[in-house]
Write a structure and sequence with these properties.
The structure holds 2 protein chains of 2 kinds.
Chain A (H helix, E strand, L loop, with lengths): L1 E4 L5 H6 L8 E8 L3 E2 L2 E10 L1 H18 L2 E9 L1 E4 L3 E9 L2 H18 L2 E7 L3 E3 L8
Parallel strand pairs in A: 1-5
Antiparallel strand pairs in A: 2-7, 3-4, 4-6, 4-8, 5-7, 8-9
Helix pairs in contact in A: 2-3
Chain B lengths: L1 E6 L1 H7 L3 E5 L3 E2 L1 H11 L11 E4 L2 E2 L6 E2 L5 E5 L6
Parallel strand pairs in B: 1-7
Antiparallel strand pairs in B: 1-2, 3-6, 4-5, 4-7
Classes of the chains: A alpha+beta, B alpha+beta.
Chain lengths: ~140, ~80
């Protein structure tokens, strides 16, 4: 399951999509909108994405992850649009026979997504808003 | 070649547009691309060294010339902050 959409993330559906009888472990990562950044109070966050490109990259990243780690399933959903504090912006579910690789692979997916995917976030403060500085993509 | 341009996030705000079209040669070096973009969208020029390029949803790897076909879409990908 690989989705970029402005709908709230359905964590249950994501987890269900990686479940299998052979999986003894499912690691789930939730990226959540936090109420502060750089010592300032954050009111809300807005996410924008190149949807088609990001969804293609999700599929490729899942394939790459399954070659790199002995995992059984990978699912990723990223949300776009305006998000309130406490809402999930991204959820990743990874299943495997044992927990060590599920944790490692899940980490690998979020770490890679954060520096390569065409997705941007804008922070809203009391005084105004700005795009998070971000990481120039190196390919 | 008639090329579609697509701007995201900071690029869109600096360009003042989400979409544009431009004429570019079939083999286009980066400098030519930057100078064409800089002429049309001067406020975007300074950011360009940090902007990655995708053609039809795939990142262009390395610094070499862009190989373009009529109707291709170039997306300008500023520094990313997803997740």
């Amino acid at each position: 399951m690989f989705v970029v959409s402005d709908l709230p993330i359905n964590r249950e559906e994501l987890v269900k999509s990686v479940e299998s009888q052979e999986a003894g472990a499912i690691a789930v990562f939730d990226g959540v909108v936090r109420n502060n950044a750089d010592g300032k109070k954050v009111l809300r966050m807005e996410y924008e994405a190149h949807k088609e490109m990001a969804e293609n990259m999700m599929k490729e990243l899942a394939e790459k992850t399954m070659k790199k780690y002995p995992v059984l399933g990978v699912a990723i959903q990223h949300r776009t649009g305006m998000l309130e504090i406490g809402e999930s912006s991204v959820t990743i579910a990874v299943s495997s026979a044992h927990r060590a690789e599920a944790f490692e692979a899940c980490r690998y997916v979020i770490d890679t997504l954060k520096v390569t995917f065409p997705i941007w976030k804008k922070e809203y403060f009391e005084e105004g808003s700005n795009w998070v500085k971000g990481t120039p993509v190196k390919v | 070649m008639k090329i579609k341009l697509r701007f995201f996030a900071m690029c869109r705000e600096l360009a003042g547009e989400e979409h544009a079209t431009i004429d570019l040669p079939q083999s286009c070096d980066r400098q030519r691309l930057h100078s064409e973009i800089g002429t049309l969208f001067p406020r975007l020029f300074k950011l360009l060294p940090q902007v990655a390029i995708a053609i039809n949803n795939e990142y262009v790897r390395g610094d070499g010339n862009l190989k373009l076909k009529d109707g291709d879409e170039i997306s300008f990908i500023p520094p990313v902050s997803g997740g």
